[in-house]
Design brief:
alpha/beta, globular, Thioredoxin_ResA/DsbE_sf, six-stranded mixed β-sheet, 482 residues, TlpA family protein disulfide reductase, Thioredoxin-like_sf, four-stranded mixed β-sheet, Immunoglobulin-like
Length: 482
C-alpha cells in the first residue's frame, strides 16, 4: 500500500504543471496507396477521430481509386489519436493539426495475425507515426489490459485506484525499456506516455459505473486521483479520445449525484466535477451539440448564451457551422419534394387499429417501417445505410414508412432533409403524442430504433425486422413478402 500511495504522491505533483488543450481551426490530410488492392465499386478509405465539439467518434470517408490510391482531408484541432481505415487495416495511430500523413501499406500483410512489415509513413512526423505503429503492434496489441480485468475482481474504489496506478507505473517502465532498445523518438515517447496515462484515467472513470451499482461510495480522493493523472498527461499536449471519454463518464456519474440530491440540474452537477474553465467550456459545447444533433437549430438568444459561456474559437466555429447547416436545411423545402409528411390520422381506440389504418394506406406494397426519433443517435446512425437500401429495392413494391417519437415539427422536417430519408416511396408520420405512445407500447422492440414489416395485404409480420445496416437480410425478408 505504501508503495502505491507514494507513487500516487508523485502523480499528484501534476496539479502544478497543467497544459490545457489549445484547439486550432485546422485539418489533417491522409494520402497514400495500397498494394495488393482488389478494387470494389464504392470502396472508401475511412478515418475515425474524436469529435471535440460532440464528444463521440466521427468517421470521414473518401474513395479509393482502382489503383489503390486515396486522399482524405478532415478537421483536426489538436494532437490526438486517429484510426486509419478501421475494418480494413485497423491501424491505430496519432495525428497533428496541419500535417499531411503519407501512408503506404500492403493489404496482403493485414490478412493474418502478424504485424505488417512493409507499412511505412512519410511526411514531417513520419518517425512518430512509425514509432507509434511499432509500439502498438509490439506491446499494446499483445499485452492485454489488466486494468479492465482488475475491475472484475475489485470492489473498493481506492483499492482499484492504487492497483491502476501500479499498473500504469509498470507500463511506463516497460515503455522506457522499449524506447531504449528501439531508439524511439523523444516526442514519440512523450505521446505514448500521455496515451498510457489517459487510458488509465479512462479505466478509472469506467470503474465508477461499478461503484455506483454497489454500496461503495466514490470518495473525493478517487476523483482527485483521476484529475491528477489527467493533469500529468496533459503536459505532453497530446489529447486522445480517452480524455474526452473520461469527461463524458463524469457526466454519467453526475446523473447518480443528481438523483441522490433529487435535482434535475444534471449539467450543473457535472460542471462542478470539472476542474478548469476549458473543460467547462467543452462540457457546455457538448450539451449544445446534443441539441443540434437532434436537428434542433439555435435561436439568436440561444446562440448568444452559448457564446457568452464558450470563448474557444474552434468550439465556437464548429457550433456556428453546425447551426448554420440546420438553418439552411430548414429553409429548403424543395428537399422534401415527393415525400409525404403526415401529422394526423383518425382517433382510434387501440394500437392495432392505428397500425391497421396506417397499413391500409399502402395495400399492394410491402411496408418497411422504422420507429425512430430525431434525438435518437442509433436511429440516425442506421439511416446512413438507408439510401443504399432504397436503391437495392428500387422498382419493387416496397414503401418506407417512418414513425417519429417526440420530435418537434421543425426538427423533424430538418432531420428528414439532413438524413436524406426522402423519395416518392417514403412516407413520414409525426403523430400526436398519445397515438405514437399507444403504438410504441404495443410494437416497440427493445427500444429505438424498431423495424417492422407489414405484408402487401396489410398484415403485421414482425417488429424484429433486419436493420438497414444489414441490407442483404432486409432484401431477403422483403423478397419473401413480395
Amino acid at each position: 500500500m505504501l508503495k502505491s500511495l507514494s507513487t500516487l504522491a508523485l502523480i499528484l505533483y501534476a496539479f502544478s504543471s497543467f497544459a490545457q488543450p489549445q484547439l486550432k481551426i485546422d485539418s489533417v490530410t491522409v494520402t497514400g496507396q495500397y498494394d495488393h488492392y482488389d478494387h470494389q465499386t464504392g470502396d472508401q478509405f475511412n478515418v475515425t477521430v474524436y469529435d471535440w465539439a460532440g464528444s463521440h467518434q466521427k468517421k470521414y470517408s473518401a474513395p479509393i481509386d482502382p489503383s489503390g490510391k486515396f486522399t482524405i482531408k478532415f478537421p483536426f484541432p489538436v494532437a490526438g489519436d486517429i484510426y486509419l481505415d478501421w475494418g480494413r487495416i485497423y491501424e491505430a495511430n496519432v495525428a497533428f493539426p496541419g500535417e499531411t500523413i503519407r501512408l503506404y501499406a500492403d493489404l496482403a500483410e493485414y490478412k493474418g495475425t502478424k504485424a505488417p512489415v512493409s507499412t511505412r509513413f512519410e511526411g514531417a512526423n513520419a518517425n512518430v507515426h512509425t514509432d507509434y505503429m511499432r509500439y502498438y503492434y509490439d506491446v499494446m496489441r499483445t499485452a492485454g489490459d489488466s486494468l479492465y480485468s482488475l475491475r472484475n475482481r475489485l470492489s473498493s474504489g481506492l483499492e482499484y485506484r492504487d492497483s491502476a496506478v501500479t499498473v500504469l507505473q509498470r507500463k511506463l517502465r516497460k515503455l522506457d525499456d522499449y524506447a531504449r532498445k528501439q531508439n524511439l523518438d523523444k516526442r514519440s515517447v512523450q505521446i505514448i506516455q500521455a496515451y498510457l496515462r489517459f487510458s488509465t484515467a479512462g479505466a478509472m472513470t469506467q470503474f465508477i459505473y461499478k461503484l455506483t451499482g454497489s454500496s461503495s461510495e466514490i470518495s473525493p480522493a478517487y476523483l482527485s486521483s483521476i484529475d491528477s493523472i489527467h493533469m500529468m498527461a496533459q503536459s505532453a499536449e497530446f489529447f486522445p479520445g480517452d480524455y474526452m471519454m473520461a469527461l463524458r463518464d463524469k457526466k454519467n456519474y453526475a446523473y447518480t449525484l443528481a438523483n441522490k440530491a433529487k435535482t434535475k440540474e444534471i449539467d450543473s452537477v457535472w460542471y462542478s466535477l470539472l476542474k478548469n474553465d476549458f473543460e467547462k467550456e467543452l462540457a457546455y459545447t457538448w450539451t449544445t451539440n446534443q441539441h443540434l444533433a437532434a436537428s434542433n437549430s439555435l435561436g439568436n438568444n440561444e446562440l448568444q448564451a452559448f457564446e457568452d459561456k464558450v470563448k474557444d474559437p474552434y468550439l465556437r466555429s464548429e457550433i456556428n457551422a453546425r447551426n448554420n447547416e440546420l438553418l439552411k436545411l430548414a429553409q429548403n423545402d424543395a428537399l422534401l419534394k415527393n415525400t409525404r409528411l403526415i401529422t394526423t390520422i383518425p382517433e382510434l381506440a387501440t394500437a392495432e387499429e392505428l397500425m391497421a389504418h396506417i397499413a391500409s394506406q399502402f395495400k399492394g406494397k410491402v411496408v418497411y417501417m422504422d420507429i425512430w426519433g430525431t434525438w435518437c443517435a442509433p436511429c440516425r446512425d442506421q439511416m446512413q445505410y438507408s439510401p443504399a437500401l432504397k436503391q437495392r429495392l428500387k422498382g419493387k413494391d416496397v414503401v418506407f414508412v417512418y414513425l417519429a417519437n417526440n420530435s418537434p415539427e421543425t426538427a423533424w422536417k430538418t432531420a428528414i432533409k439532413q438524413l436524406m430519408i426522402t423519395g416518392d416511396n417514403v412516407v413520414h408520420y409525426n403523430l400526436p403524442k398519445a397515438q405514437q405512445s399507444m403504438i410504441e407500447k404495443k410494437y416497440l422492440y427493445r427500444g429505438f430504433p424498431t423495424y417492422i414489416l407489414i405484408d402487401k395485404e396489410g398484415k403485421f409480420i414482425t417488429n424484429q425486422a433486419p436493420r438497414p445496416s444489414d441490407p442483404d437480410a432486409v432484401e431477403k425478408a422483403v423478397a419473401g413478402l413480395l
